[in-house]
Write a structure and sequence with these properties.
Chain lengths: 286, 226
Protein backbone atom coordinates (compact mmCIF):
# COMPACT_ATOMS: atom_id res chain seq x y z
CA UNK A 1 0.00 0.00 0.00
CA UNK A 2 2.78 2.39 0.89
CA UNK A 3 4.33 1.84 -2.55
CA UNK A 4 1.06 2.64 -4.34
CA UNK A 5 0.77 5.89 -2.42
CA UNK A 6 4.29 7.06 -3.20
CA UNK A 7 3.84 6.24 -6.86
CA UNK A 8 0.48 7.98 -7.20
CA UNK A 9 1.45 11.02 -5.13
CA UNK A 10 3.45 12.93 -7.80
CA UNK A 11 0.50 12.56 -10.18
CA UNK A 12 -1.58 14.89 -8.01
CA UNK A 13 -2.18 18.23 -9.76
CA UNK A 14 -3.25 21.73 -8.64
CA UNK A 15 -1.60 24.55 -6.72
CA UNK A 16 -1.21 22.67 -3.44
CA UNK A 17 -0.11 19.57 -5.33
CA UNK A 18 3.67 19.36 -4.85
CA UNK A 19 3.77 20.26 -1.14
CA UNK A 20 0.89 17.95 -0.30
CA UNK A 21 2.49 15.18 -2.28
CA UNK A 22 5.77 15.74 -0.41
CA UNK A 23 4.04 15.63 2.98
CA UNK A 24 2.22 12.48 2.03
CA UNK A 25 5.31 10.68 0.80
CA UNK A 26 7.25 11.67 3.94
CA UNK A 27 4.42 10.31 6.05
CA UNK A 28 4.18 7.08 4.07
CA UNK A 29 7.90 6.56 4.57
CA UNK A 30 7.74 7.22 8.31
CA UNK A 31 4.44 5.42 8.91
CA UNK A 32 5.82 1.89 9.45
CA UNK A 33 8.38 3.14 11.99
CA UNK A 34 5.84 5.27 13.86
CA UNK A 35 3.32 2.42 14.02
CA UNK A 36 5.97 -0.04 15.16
CA UNK A 37 6.99 2.24 18.07
CA UNK A 38 3.49 2.52 19.58
CA UNK A 39 3.53 -0.71 21.61
CA UNK A 40 7.11 -0.33 22.96
CA UNK A 41 6.31 3.25 24.03
CA UNK A 42 3.14 2.20 25.87
CA UNK A 43 5.14 -0.52 27.61
CA UNK A 44 7.87 1.96 28.53
CA UNK A 45 5.32 4.38 30.03
CA UNK A 46 3.73 1.54 32.00
CA UNK A 47 7.16 0.46 33.23
CA UNK A 48 7.98 4.04 34.28
CA UNK A 49 4.67 4.43 36.14
CA UNK A 50 4.94 1.01 37.78
CA UNK A 51 8.44 1.68 39.11
CA UNK A 52 7.90 5.31 40.23
CA UNK A 53 4.65 4.31 41.99
CA UNK A 54 6.71 1.54 43.64
CA UNK A 55 4.33 -1.29 42.67
CA UNK A 56 7.49 -3.32 42.78
CA UNK A 57 10.82 -2.58 44.39
CA UNK A 58 12.76 -5.28 42.58
CA UNK A 59 12.68 -3.75 39.10
CA UNK A 60 14.75 -0.62 38.40
CA UNK A 61 13.27 2.36 36.52
CA UNK A 62 13.70 2.64 32.72
CA UNK A 63 16.03 5.57 33.34
CA UNK A 64 18.27 3.50 35.61
CA UNK A 65 18.37 0.69 33.06
CA UNK A 66 19.14 3.17 30.27
CA UNK A 67 21.97 4.63 32.30
CA UNK A 68 23.27 1.17 33.06
CA UNK A 69 23.04 0.23 29.39
CA UNK A 70 25.33 3.14 28.50
CA UNK A 71 27.77 2.06 31.20
CA UNK A 72 27.53 -1.54 29.96
CA UNK A 73 28.30 -0.35 26.42
CA UNK A 74 30.97 2.33 26.91
CA UNK A 75 31.64 2.52 30.66
CA UNK A 76 32.46 5.68 32.62
CA UNK A 77 29.46 5.74 34.99
CA UNK A 78 29.68 2.90 37.50
CA UNK A 79 33.00 1.37 36.47
CA UNK A 80 32.28 -2.08 37.85
CA UNK A 81 33.15 -5.52 36.46
CA UNK A 82 30.57 -5.18 33.67
CA UNK A 83 31.33 -1.65 32.48
CA UNK A 84 32.21 -1.38 28.79
CA UNK A 85 32.03 -5.13 28.31
CA UNK A 86 28.96 -5.25 26.00
CA UNK A 87 31.02 -5.78 22.82
CA UNK A 88 32.97 -8.65 24.37
CA UNK A 89 29.80 -10.43 25.51
CA UNK A 90 27.94 -9.71 22.28
CA UNK A 91 30.78 -11.06 20.16
CA UNK A 92 31.07 -14.16 22.34
CA UNK A 93 27.34 -14.84 21.97
CA UNK A 94 27.39 -14.12 18.26
CA UNK A 95 30.20 -16.59 17.69
CA UNK A 96 28.12 -19.27 19.47
CA UNK A 97 24.87 -18.35 17.70
CA UNK A 98 26.38 -18.35 14.21
CA UNK A 99 28.76 -21.22 14.90
CA UNK A 100 26.02 -23.40 16.38
CA UNK A 101 23.67 -22.41 13.58
CA UNK A 102 26.22 -23.25 10.88
CA UNK A 103 26.87 -26.60 12.52
CA UNK A 104 23.12 -27.29 12.66
CA UNK A 105 22.74 -26.43 8.96
CA UNK A 106 25.68 -28.67 8.12
CA UNK A 107 23.87 -31.64 9.70
CA UNK A 108 20.24 -30.79 9.03
CA UNK A 109 20.47 -30.02 5.30
CA UNK A 110 21.93 -33.35 4.10
CA UNK A 111 19.89 -35.40 6.59
CA UNK A 112 16.72 -33.55 5.55
CA UNK A 113 17.40 -34.10 1.85
CA UNK A 114 18.10 -37.78 2.54
CA UNK A 115 14.90 -38.26 4.57
CA UNK A 116 12.87 -36.34 2.02
CA UNK A 117 14.12 -38.20 -1.06
CA UNK A 118 15.10 -41.71 0.09
CA UNK A 119 12.23 -43.81 1.55
CA UNK A 120 14.59 -46.18 3.42
CA UNK A 121 16.41 -43.28 5.07
CA UNK A 122 13.04 -41.88 6.03
CA UNK A 123 11.99 -45.15 7.68
CA UNK A 124 15.29 -45.46 9.57
CA UNK A 125 15.75 -41.86 10.75
CA UNK A 126 12.35 -40.22 10.90
CA UNK A 127 10.81 -42.10 13.90
CA UNK A 128 13.97 -41.59 15.98
CA UNK A 129 14.16 -37.87 15.19
CA UNK A 130 10.45 -37.39 15.85
CA UNK A 131 10.89 -38.82 19.37
CA UNK A 132 13.97 -36.66 20.04
CA UNK A 133 12.33 -33.50 18.75
CA UNK A 134 9.96 -32.69 21.67
CA UNK A 135 12.83 -32.82 24.19
CA UNK A 136 13.59 -29.19 25.04
CA UNK A 137 17.12 -27.82 24.83
CA UNK A 138 16.95 -27.07 28.58
CA UNK A 139 16.57 -30.79 29.28
CA UNK A 140 19.77 -31.49 27.36
CA UNK A 141 21.78 -29.07 29.52
CA UNK A 142 23.07 -31.60 32.12
CA UNK A 143 23.89 -34.28 29.54
CA UNK A 144 25.57 -31.74 27.32
CA UNK A 145 27.83 -30.63 30.16
CA UNK A 146 28.75 -34.25 30.88
CA UNK A 147 29.42 -35.04 27.22
CA UNK A 148 31.12 -31.82 26.12
CA UNK A 149 32.37 -30.49 29.44
CA UNK A 150 31.84 -27.10 31.05
CA UNK A 151 32.29 -24.23 28.64
CA UNK A 152 32.08 -23.22 25.04
CA UNK A 153 31.78 -26.69 23.44
CA UNK A 154 28.62 -27.36 25.41
CA UNK A 155 27.19 -23.99 24.43
CA UNK A 156 27.84 -24.73 20.74
CA UNK A 157 26.17 -28.12 21.04
CA UNK A 158 23.02 -26.71 22.70
CA UNK A 159 22.63 -23.85 20.21
CA UNK A 160 23.18 -26.32 17.38
CA UNK A 161 20.47 -28.59 18.78
CA UNK A 162 18.05 -25.67 19.04
CA UNK A 163 18.56 -24.66 15.41
CA UNK A 164 18.60 -28.23 14.04
CA UNK A 165 14.93 -29.19 13.91
CA UNK A 166 13.39 -26.23 12.07
CA UNK A 167 16.08 -26.56 9.38
CA UNK A 168 15.56 -30.33 9.18
CA UNK A 169 11.76 -30.26 9.02
CA UNK A 170 11.59 -27.49 6.43
CA UNK A 171 14.22 -29.18 4.27
CA UNK A 172 12.26 -32.46 4.35
CA UNK A 173 9.07 -30.62 3.47
CA UNK A 174 10.78 -28.67 0.68
CA UNK A 175 12.34 -31.62 -1.14
CA UNK A 176 9.20 -33.74 -0.74
CA UNK A 177 6.67 -31.23 -2.02
CA UNK A 178 8.08 -30.58 -5.48
CA UNK A 179 5.27 -30.34 -8.05
CA UNK A 180 5.35 -33.71 -9.94
CA UNK A 181 4.59 -31.83 -13.19
CA UNK A 182 8.03 -30.22 -12.95
CA UNK A 183 9.69 -33.65 -13.10
CA UNK A 184 7.64 -34.50 -16.19
CA UNK A 185 8.51 -31.15 -17.74
CA UNK A 186 12.21 -31.66 -17.01
CA UNK A 187 12.29 -35.20 -18.39
CA UNK A 188 10.50 -34.31 -21.62
CA UNK A 189 13.05 -31.51 -22.06
CA UNK A 190 15.89 -34.00 -21.77
CA UNK A 191 16.88 -33.63 -18.10
CA UNK A 192 16.77 -37.06 -16.48
CA UNK A 193 17.93 -39.03 -13.45
CA UNK A 194 20.39 -37.40 -11.07
CA UNK A 195 20.46 -34.17 -13.07
CA UNK A 196 16.85 -33.63 -11.96
CA UNK A 197 18.03 -33.46 -8.36
CA UNK A 198 20.22 -30.43 -9.05
CA UNK A 199 18.04 -28.79 -11.67
CA UNK A 200 14.58 -29.41 -10.20
CA UNK A 201 14.51 -30.69 -6.59
CA UNK A 202 17.07 -28.31 -5.06
CA UNK A 203 15.84 -25.08 -6.68
CA UNK A 204 12.20 -26.00 -6.01
CA UNK A 205 13.04 -26.63 -2.34
CA UNK A 206 15.00 -23.40 -1.75
CA UNK A 207 12.07 -21.30 -0.41
CA UNK A 208 11.30 -23.97 2.16
CA UNK A 209 14.95 -24.51 3.05
CA UNK A 210 15.35 -20.77 3.42
CA UNK A 211 12.38 -20.60 5.81
CA UNK A 212 14.01 -23.38 7.81
CA UNK A 213 17.33 -21.53 8.00
CA UNK A 214 15.58 -18.34 9.07
CA UNK A 215 13.64 -20.12 11.83
CA UNK A 216 16.80 -21.98 12.83
CA UNK A 217 18.81 -18.79 13.23
CA UNK A 218 15.96 -17.25 15.23
CA UNK A 219 15.96 -20.27 17.54
CA UNK A 220 19.74 -20.11 17.88
CA UNK A 221 19.32 -16.65 19.42
CA UNK A 222 16.38 -17.96 21.40
CA UNK A 223 18.40 -20.70 23.13
CA UNK A 224 21.61 -18.70 23.64
CA UNK A 225 20.87 -18.12 27.35
CA UNK A 226 20.44 -21.84 27.99
CA UNK A 227 23.53 -22.48 25.90
CA UNK A 228 25.52 -20.13 28.09
CA UNK A 229 24.34 -21.70 31.34
CA UNK A 230 27.17 -24.13 30.77
CA UNK A 231 29.66 -22.11 32.76
CA UNK A 232 31.13 -19.96 30.03
CA UNK A 233 32.64 -16.75 31.41
CA UNK A 234 31.52 -14.50 28.57
CA UNK A 235 28.36 -14.02 26.55
CA UNK A 236 25.01 -12.31 26.95
CA UNK A 237 23.49 -15.45 28.45
CA UNK A 238 26.32 -15.61 30.98
CA UNK A 239 25.72 -11.94 31.85
CA UNK A 240 22.02 -12.63 32.46
CA UNK A 241 22.85 -15.63 34.64
CA UNK A 242 25.37 -13.52 36.63
CA UNK A 243 22.75 -10.77 37.00
CA UNK A 244 20.37 -13.35 38.41
CA UNK A 245 22.85 -14.68 41.00
CA UNK A 246 23.97 -11.18 41.98
CA UNK A 247 20.35 -9.89 42.12
CA UNK A 248 21.27 -7.19 39.63
CA UNK A 249 18.04 -6.88 37.68
CA UNK A 250 19.31 -3.98 35.53
CA UNK A 251 22.03 -6.27 34.23
CA UNK A 252 19.44 -8.93 33.36
CA UNK A 253 17.25 -6.42 31.52
CA UNK A 254 20.22 -4.99 29.59
CA UNK A 255 21.18 -8.50 28.47
CA UNK A 256 17.60 -9.18 27.38
CA UNK A 257 17.39 -5.99 25.34
CA UNK A 258 20.70 -6.67 23.59
CA UNK A 259 19.67 -10.24 22.70
CA UNK A 260 16.33 -8.97 21.34
CA UNK A 261 17.95 -6.29 19.20
CA UNK A 262 20.78 -8.52 17.96
CA UNK A 263 18.32 -11.28 17.03
CA UNK A 264 16.10 -8.75 15.28
CA UNK A 265 18.90 -7.21 13.22
CA UNK A 266 20.25 -10.65 12.33
CA UNK A 267 16.77 -11.69 11.12
CA UNK A 268 16.33 -8.51 9.04
CA UNK A 269 19.60 -9.20 7.26
CA UNK A 270 18.49 -12.77 6.51
CA UNK A 271 15.10 -11.56 5.25
CA UNK A 272 16.73 -8.99 2.96
CA UNK A 273 19.03 -11.69 1.61
CA UNK A 274 16.04 -13.99 1.06
CA UNK A 275 14.03 -11.33 -0.75
CA UNK A 276 16.90 -10.95 -3.15
CA UNK A 277 17.75 -14.63 -3.67
CA UNK A 278 14.12 -15.72 -3.87
CA UNK A 279 12.85 -12.84 -5.97
CA UNK A 280 11.43 -15.42 -8.39
CA UNK A 281 9.10 -16.77 -5.74
CA UNK A 282 5.72 -14.98 -5.60
CA UNK A 283 4.99 -15.87 -1.97
CA UNK A 284 8.36 -15.16 -0.43
CA UNK A 285 8.55 -11.62 0.77
CA UNK A 286 9.10 -11.19 4.52
CA UNK B 1 0.01 -35.46 -46.94
CA UNK B 2 2.76 -38.07 -47.18
CA UNK B 3 0.42 -41.09 -47.50
CA UNK B 4 3.15 -43.58 -48.36
CA UNK B 5 5.71 -42.64 -45.68
CA UNK B 6 5.99 -44.16 -42.21
CA UNK B 7 3.65 -42.40 -39.78
CA UNK B 8 5.43 -40.33 -37.12
CA UNK B 9 3.32 -41.95 -34.40
CA UNK B 10 1.39 -45.21 -34.42
CA UNK B 11 -0.95 -46.33 -31.68
CA UNK B 12 -1.82 -50.01 -32.09
CA UNK B 13 -4.54 -51.56 -29.94
CA UNK B 14 -3.50 -49.54 -26.91
CA UNK B 15 -5.38 -50.10 -23.64
CA UNK B 16 -4.69 -48.51 -20.30
CA UNK B 17 -6.00 -49.81 -17.00
CA UNK B 18 -5.57 -47.92 -13.74
CA UNK B 19 -5.98 -49.47 -10.32
CA UNK B 20 -7.56 -46.99 -7.91
CA UNK B 21 -7.81 -48.66 -4.49
CA UNK B 22 -10.15 -51.60 -5.19
CA UNK B 23 -11.51 -50.15 -8.44
CA UNK B 24 -10.25 -50.99 -11.91
CA UNK B 25 -10.57 -48.11 -14.34
CA UNK B 26 -10.39 -48.73 -18.08
CA UNK B 27 -9.07 -45.36 -19.16
CA UNK B 28 -8.40 -46.50 -22.71
CA UNK B 29 -9.57 -49.55 -24.59
CA UNK B 30 -8.16 -50.79 -27.89
CA UNK B 31 -7.19 -47.43 -29.36
CA UNK B 32 -5.75 -47.30 -32.89
CA UNK B 33 -4.40 -44.12 -34.37
CA UNK B 34 -1.79 -43.29 -36.93
CA UNK B 35 -0.39 -39.76 -37.15
CA UNK B 36 1.47 -38.46 -40.18
CA UNK B 37 4.19 -35.87 -40.12
CA UNK B 38 2.89 -32.34 -40.37
CA UNK B 39 -0.65 -33.09 -39.24
CA UNK B 40 -2.54 -30.98 -36.70
CA UNK B 41 -4.75 -33.43 -34.87
CA UNK B 42 -7.29 -32.53 -32.23
CA UNK B 43 -8.35 -35.21 -29.76
CA UNK B 44 -11.76 -34.25 -28.55
CA UNK B 45 -14.24 -35.78 -26.12
CA UNK B 46 -15.93 -35.46 -22.76
CA UNK B 47 -13.82 -35.73 -19.60
CA UNK B 48 -12.90 -39.31 -18.77
CA UNK B 49 -12.72 -40.42 -22.41
CA UNK B 50 -9.02 -41.15 -22.15
CA UNK B 51 -7.77 -38.33 -24.36
CA UNK B 52 -5.25 -37.12 -21.80
CA UNK B 53 -4.19 -40.72 -21.11
CA UNK B 54 -3.55 -41.26 -24.82
CA UNK B 55 -1.53 -38.04 -24.92
CA UNK B 56 0.51 -39.07 -21.88
CA UNK B 57 1.26 -42.44 -23.51
CA UNK B 58 2.48 -40.62 -26.64
CA UNK B 59 4.65 -38.41 -24.42
CA UNK B 60 6.09 -41.48 -22.70
CA UNK B 61 4.92 -40.45 -19.20
CA UNK B 62 2.70 -43.55 -19.03
CA UNK B 63 3.12 -46.99 -20.59
CA UNK B 64 0.20 -48.81 -22.24
CA UNK B 65 -1.24 -51.79 -20.31
CA UNK B 66 -1.50 -53.63 -23.63
CA UNK B 67 -0.84 -52.73 -27.26
CA UNK B 68 1.96 -50.66 -28.72
CA UNK B 69 2.81 -46.98 -29.01
CA UNK B 70 5.45 -46.34 -31.66
CA UNK B 71 7.33 -43.30 -32.90
CA UNK B 72 8.99 -43.72 -36.29
CA UNK B 73 8.34 -47.44 -35.84
CA UNK B 74 10.15 -47.70 -32.48
CA UNK B 75 8.37 -48.22 -29.13
CA UNK B 76 8.00 -45.10 -26.98
CA UNK B 77 9.90 -46.06 -23.83
CA UNK B 78 9.89 -42.80 -21.90
CA UNK B 79 9.86 -39.01 -22.20
CA UNK B 80 12.13 -37.63 -24.90
CA UNK B 81 12.98 -34.16 -26.22
CA UNK B 82 11.63 -35.16 -29.66
CA UNK B 83 8.16 -35.20 -28.12
CA UNK B 84 7.42 -31.94 -26.34
CA UNK B 85 4.51 -31.52 -23.97
CA UNK B 86 2.60 -28.32 -23.28
CA UNK B 87 0.66 -28.64 -20.04
CA UNK B 88 -2.59 -26.89 -19.16
CA UNK B 89 -1.05 -25.43 -16.01
CA UNK B 90 2.17 -24.45 -17.85
CA UNK B 91 4.59 -26.33 -15.54
CA UNK B 92 7.26 -23.66 -16.03
CA UNK B 93 10.20 -23.63 -13.64
CA UNK B 94 9.30 -20.73 -11.33
CA UNK B 95 12.93 -20.09 -10.32
CA UNK B 96 14.09 -19.57 -13.89
CA UNK B 97 13.57 -16.44 -15.98
CA UNK B 98 11.69 -16.63 -19.28
CA UNK B 99 15.04 -16.85 -21.02
CA UNK B 100 16.32 -19.68 -18.80
CA UNK B 101 13.04 -21.60 -19.05
CA UNK B 102 13.29 -21.60 -22.83
CA UNK B 103 16.97 -22.48 -22.64
CA UNK B 104 16.41 -25.32 -20.14
CA UNK B 105 16.09 -28.02 -22.80
CA UNK B 106 19.02 -26.96 -25.00
CA UNK B 107 21.22 -26.54 -21.89
CA UNK B 108 20.18 -29.99 -20.60
CA UNK B 109 21.22 -31.50 -23.91
CA UNK B 110 24.70 -30.12 -23.32
CA UNK B 111 24.80 -27.33 -25.89
CA UNK B 112 27.29 -24.51 -25.32
CA UNK B 113 26.22 -21.17 -23.85
CA UNK B 114 26.55 -19.30 -27.15
CA UNK B 115 24.45 -21.85 -29.00
CA UNK B 116 21.79 -21.85 -26.26
CA UNK B 117 21.62 -18.07 -26.40
CA UNK B 118 21.13 -18.11 -30.15
CA UNK B 119 18.30 -20.66 -29.91
CA UNK B 120 16.63 -18.81 -27.03
CA UNK B 121 16.77 -15.49 -28.89
CA UNK B 122 15.13 -17.06 -31.91
CA UNK B 123 12.22 -18.66 -30.06
CA UNK B 124 11.67 -15.87 -27.56
CA UNK B 125 11.21 -13.68 -30.61
CA UNK B 126 8.91 -16.22 -32.30
CA UNK B 127 6.46 -16.09 -29.38
CA UNK B 128 6.83 -12.30 -29.00
CA UNK B 129 8.28 -12.22 -25.49
CA UNK B 130 11.61 -10.45 -26.12
CA UNK B 131 10.63 -7.63 -23.76
CA UNK B 132 10.00 -10.11 -20.95
CA UNK B 133 13.16 -12.17 -21.39
CA UNK B 134 14.33 -11.59 -17.83
CA UNK B 135 10.93 -11.75 -16.10
CA UNK B 136 10.04 -14.66 -13.83
CA UNK B 137 6.95 -16.81 -14.51
CA UNK B 138 4.94 -15.34 -11.60
CA UNK B 139 5.24 -11.90 -13.21
CA UNK B 140 3.59 -13.09 -16.45
CA UNK B 141 -0.08 -13.46 -17.44
CA UNK B 142 -1.50 -16.90 -18.22
CA UNK B 143 -1.24 -16.32 -21.96
CA UNK B 144 2.39 -15.27 -21.69
CA UNK B 145 3.23 -18.29 -19.54
CA UNK B 146 1.73 -20.58 -22.16
CA UNK B 147 3.79 -18.84 -24.85
CA UNK B 148 6.93 -19.60 -22.82
CA UNK B 149 5.80 -23.24 -22.49
CA UNK B 150 5.34 -23.49 -26.27
CA UNK B 151 8.67 -21.78 -26.93
CA UNK B 152 10.64 -24.08 -24.63
CA UNK B 153 9.26 -27.13 -26.43
CA UNK B 154 10.05 -25.66 -29.87
CA UNK B 155 13.51 -24.55 -28.70
CA UNK B 156 14.24 -28.16 -27.84
CA UNK B 157 13.72 -29.30 -31.44
CA UNK B 158 10.55 -31.25 -30.73
CA UNK B 159 9.16 -32.91 -33.88
CA UNK B 160 5.89 -33.72 -32.20
CA UNK B 161 4.16 -31.21 -29.94
CA UNK B 162 1.63 -32.65 -27.53
CA UNK B 163 -0.77 -30.13 -26.02
CA UNK B 164 -3.06 -31.01 -23.14
CA UNK B 165 -5.89 -28.45 -23.12
CA UNK B 166 -3.25 -25.72 -23.25
CA UNK B 167 -5.68 -22.81 -23.55
CA UNK B 168 -8.28 -24.19 -21.15
CA UNK B 169 -7.38 -21.85 -18.29
CA UNK B 170 -7.18 -18.67 -20.41
CA UNK B 171 -9.83 -16.00 -21.00
CA UNK B 172 -11.63 -15.97 -24.36
CA UNK B 173 -9.67 -13.13 -25.95
CA UNK B 174 -6.26 -14.45 -24.98
CA UNK B 175 -7.32 -17.90 -26.14
CA UNK B 176 -8.30 -16.64 -29.59
CA UNK B 177 -5.03 -14.79 -29.98
CA UNK B 178 -2.99 -17.80 -28.94
CA UNK B 179 -4.97 -20.06 -31.29
CA UNK B 180 -4.07 -17.74 -34.17
CA UNK B 181 -0.44 -17.63 -33.11
CA UNK B 182 -0.29 -21.40 -32.78
CA UNK B 183 -1.69 -21.88 -36.29
CA UNK B 184 0.80 -19.36 -37.57
CA UNK B 185 3.71 -21.21 -35.89
CA UNK B 186 2.42 -24.54 -37.20
CA UNK B 187 2.23 -23.22 -40.76
CA UNK B 188 5.73 -21.79 -40.57
CA UNK B 189 7.43 -24.76 -38.92
CA UNK B 190 5.36 -27.69 -40.29
CA UNK B 191 5.43 -29.38 -36.90
CA UNK B 192 3.19 -32.26 -36.01
CA UNK B 193 0.71 -31.25 -33.31
CA UNK B 194 -1.60 -33.38 -31.18
CA UNK B 195 -3.96 -31.08 -29.33
CA UNK B 196 -6.36 -32.28 -26.63
CA UNK B 197 -9.46 -30.18 -26.06
CA UNK B 198 -13.08 -30.54 -25.02
CA UNK B 199 -14.20 -27.53 -27.09
CA UNK B 200 -15.60 -28.48 -30.52
CA UNK B 201 -15.12 -24.97 -31.96
CA UNK B 202 -11.47 -24.97 -30.94
CA UNK B 203 -10.94 -28.37 -32.58
CA UNK B 204 -12.57 -27.29 -35.85
CA UNK B 205 -10.69 -23.99 -35.94
CA UNK B 206 -7.26 -25.52 -35.35
CA UNK B 207 -7.14 -29.05 -36.66
CA UNK B 208 -6.94 -30.59 -40.09
CA UNK B 209 -8.03 -33.85 -38.49
CA UNK B 210 -10.39 -34.31 -35.55
CA UNK B 211 -10.41 -37.53 -33.56
CA UNK B 212 -13.51 -37.96 -31.39
CA UNK B 213 -13.26 -40.10 -28.28
CA UNK B 214 -16.00 -41.45 -25.98
CA UNK B 215 -15.80 -42.46 -22.33
CA UNK B 216 -16.53 -45.65 -20.37
CA UNK B 217 -14.21 -47.32 -21.39
CA UNK B 218 -12.25 -44.67 -23.26
CA UNK B 219 -12.04 -45.40 -27.00
CA UNK B 220 -11.81 -43.68 -30.36
CA UNK B 221 -15.29 -43.05 -31.79
CA UNK B 222 -14.49 -41.43 -35.14
CA UNK B 223 -11.61 -39.98 -37.12
CA UNK B 224 -12.46 -37.04 -39.37
CA UNK B 225 -10.22 -35.38 -41.91
CA UNK B 226 -11.24 -31.75 -42.37
Amino acid sequence: MAIVETVSAPAATGAAGPTRAATRSTWSRLKPTVLALIVPLILLVFWQVATTQQWTRLIPTPYAVGEYMIDFAVGGIYDDAYSATLTTHLLASMSRVYGGFALAALFALPIGILIGRVPTARMVLDPFLQVMRPIPVTAWLPLSMILFGLGAKSAFALVCLGAFYPILLNTIFGVRSVDPKLFEAASMLGCRGNAQFYKVVLPAATPSIFTGLRLGLGLAWFVIVVGEMTGVPQGLGAVIMDGRTLSRTELVICGMIVIGLAGYISDRVVVALGNYLLRWSPNHHG
Amino acid sequence: MAESATPIVEIKGVSKVFQLQDQTIHALSGANLSINKGEFICLIGASGCGKSTLLRIMAGFDQPSSGEALMWGKPIAGPDPSRGMVFQDYALFPWLSVRANIGFGPASRGLGAAEVKQIVDKFIDLVGLSKFANAYPHQLSGGMKQRVAIARVLANDAELVLMDEPFGALDAMTRERLQDELLDIWERTRLTVVFVTHAVEEAILLANRVVVMTPGPGRIESDNLL
